[in-house]
Amino acid sequence: MSANTLSAGSEFFRKLLRFHPNSSTRTTSGALLYVRCARRHYLQCTLDDHVDNWPDNRFWDELKRRLDPRAADDLVIGPSIEKSIAPLRSFVAEPMRFGRLFLAGDAAHIVPPTGAKGLNLAASDVHYLANAFKEFYLDGSDAGIDDYSRKALLRVWKAERFSWWMTSVLHRFPGTDEFTSRIQRAELSYLVNSDAATRSLSENYVGLPF
Ligand SMILES: Cc1cc2nc3c(=O)[nH]c(=O)nc-3n(C[C@H](O)[C@H](O)[C@H](O)COP(=O)(O)OP(=O)(O)OC[C@H]3O[C@@H](n4cnc5c(N)ncnc54)[C@H](O)[C@@H]3O)c2cc1C
């Protein structure tokens, strides 16, 4: 990953994370997904909410209300092509091998969509597993398949950590006390204003090496 990629990522996230001080409506878990052309937008909503309650106009109005004015002005809006409510979950099945059964992707681990890591993790699992099978079938060595779970889980837990952390920073949870809310705002403020923090976020968001 080049320094330019990281620095462009940092700038992107700085814009993304600039938050409006009055956006107090993100009150519960669950997320609404909106897709238009290559753009995808999320709004936090309750888990028992329903997509039918979110006609496009309501979605755009609410999104604009939660964004800071500059970001809201830049928003390109139009008809949606897909909407859904995604529950926010974190789960790891450990180990990722049971005898002759090898788990990969969502079968082994779930991350909340906040970090955009699910498909990336599935790809890295398959990368490790494909190499392990190659060693097994071509070289007659068990080393790769014996080490598969340990190797994959090293990356999985880092992505779980990042996705969980992104969720804890960008979402509000019911019953959160005042102290925790202030810590969350301090974390966001640090992210928006610190090169070191945005660089770390960008490194994880772009994806750790495998
Ligand atoms: C709203 C949302 C946004 C996301 N955004 C991102 C993102 O930006 N970046 C990212 O990296 N990840 C993202 N993900 C996660 C990503 O989609 C998944 O992690 C990824 O698709 C997992 O790949 P997989 O191959 O393990 O499972 P899947 O993609 O679910 O593939 C499993 C396949 O198995 C099939 N199947 C199931 N049961 C059977 C059966 N009994 N017999 C035969 N076939 C069966 C299913 O039909 C499916 O095609 C997102 C997920 C959601 C829900």
Characterization of this structure:
This protein has 2 domains: about 80 residues, D-Amino Acid Oxidase, Chain A, domain 2 (2-Layer Sandwich); about 120 residues, FAD/NAD(P)-binding domain (3-Layer(bba) Sandwich), CATH 3.50.50.60. Strand 5 and strand 6 form a beta hairpin. About 50% of the residues lie in helices and about 10% in strands. With about 210 residues, it is mainly α. The longest helix is centred in the C-terminal third of the chain and has 28 residues. It is built from 7 helices and 7 strands. The strands form 3 sheets. A 3-stranded antiparallel sheet has the order 2-1-3, covered by helices on one side. Strands 4-7 form a two-stranded antiparallel ribbon. A two-stranded antiparallel sheet has the order 5-6. It binds flavin-adenine dinucleotide (FAD). Flavin-adenine dinucleotide binds next to helix 4.
Task: Tag the structure with descriptive keywords.
7 helices, mainly alpha, single chain, disordered N terminus, D-Amino Acid Oxidase, Chain A, domain 2, FAD/NAD(P)-binding domain, three-stranded antiparallel beta sheet, 210 residues, two-stranded antiparallel ribbon, binds flavin-adenine dinucleotide, 12% strand, 52% helix, 2 domains
